[in-house]
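Bumping my old thread because nobody answered last time. Still need a sequence for this structure:
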């Protein structure tokens, strides 16, 4: 057309990029006017205050810095949980109660990026079984399992995110021997004393009871060695779901008590998160 003669004709791709840049500019302008909140709620400026005053920008900067600090603290706490024993974890959270909130917030953000949350898979599995079976949830977090199934669920964690939690170290839970039908560790095999923790699960499980483990796939350096160690601990593998690239879902039956000897293959790599 004659009207378009002055401007060079753009290819479809160039046109799309131009539109994208225009949208980006508009968004930046809008954010600047709103004090750069980028989606977070900001108090409306006083009518007399300049629209894009330094307070708005420094508040946004402070929010960003706080976010990065929280992320760094999450990575630090997470690393300590994976590289210390479960008793160190008890101490960590006792000495710094805020650490737990920070850890759980970061944990939820991480798992929220995955296509599926393993806890939902475990809930699915539990619903396929009788609701009369007694469950123990080791490292229960926010107790999603207990609030999603009709079974009696004993919830254990270091700090109570929910009133359903019994606060304890999972290496030593207040349950009688052979008192539960299903023991669950959903992303909770954290301490370096894994053998002790799994022996505790064996102790409270009834003979023939089920152990469900969901763990980050990349933690398994040598799955075969891990499965051998589990067999030594009295757990016979009955189901292995390795289909997710994020987590493995393993199911075992308690075949008997642990055979007492060090299980070297039990080692899992710590799950450390990269700085973003
Ligand atoms: N199972 C939950 C939470 C997983 S995060 C879910 O899948 O959503 C791991 C949890 O294990 C955290 O809540 C952490 O506090 C808990 N945990 C770590 N070490 C523990 C220990 N020694 N004793 C009890 N809980 C522990």
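Sorry it took so long. Here it is:
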């Amino acid at each position: 057309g004659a009207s378009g003669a002055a401007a060079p004709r753009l290819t479809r791709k160039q046109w799309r990029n131009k539109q994208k840049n225009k949208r980006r500019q508009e968004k930046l302008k809008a954010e600047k006017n709103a004090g750069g909140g980028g989606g977070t709620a900001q108090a409306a400026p006083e009518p007399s205050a300049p629209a894009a005053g330094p307070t708005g920008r420094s508040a946004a900067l402070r929010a960003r810095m706080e976010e990065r600090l929280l992320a760094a603290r999450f990575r630090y706490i997470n690393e300590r949980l994976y590289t210390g024993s479960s008793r160190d974890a008890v101490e960590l959270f006792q000495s710094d109660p805020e650490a737990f909130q920070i850890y759980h917030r970061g944990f939820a953000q991480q798992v929220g990026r995955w296509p599926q949350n393993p806890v939902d898979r475990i809930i699915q599995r539990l619903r396929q079984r009788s609701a009369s079976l007694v469950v123990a949830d080791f490292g229960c977090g926010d107790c999603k399992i207990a609030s999603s199934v009709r079974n009696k669920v004993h919830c254990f964690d270091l700090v109570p995110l929910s009133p359903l939690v019994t606060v304890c170290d999972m290496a030593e839970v207040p349950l009688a021997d052979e008192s539960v039908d299903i023991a669950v560790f959903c992303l909770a095999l954290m301490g370096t004393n894994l053998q002790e923790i799994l022996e505790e699960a064996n102790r409270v499980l009834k003979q023939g009871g089920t152990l469900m483990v969901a763990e980050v796939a990349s933690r398994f350096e040598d799955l075969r060695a891990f499965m051998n160690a589990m067999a030594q601990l009295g757990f016979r593998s009955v189901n292995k779901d390795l289909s997710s690239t994020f987590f493995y879902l393993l199911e075992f039956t308690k075949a008997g008590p642990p055979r007492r000897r060090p299980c070297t293959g039990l080692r899992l790599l710590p799950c450390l998160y990269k700085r973003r």
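The domain at 111-266 is CATH 3.40.50.150 (Rossmann fold). Let me know if any region looks off to you.
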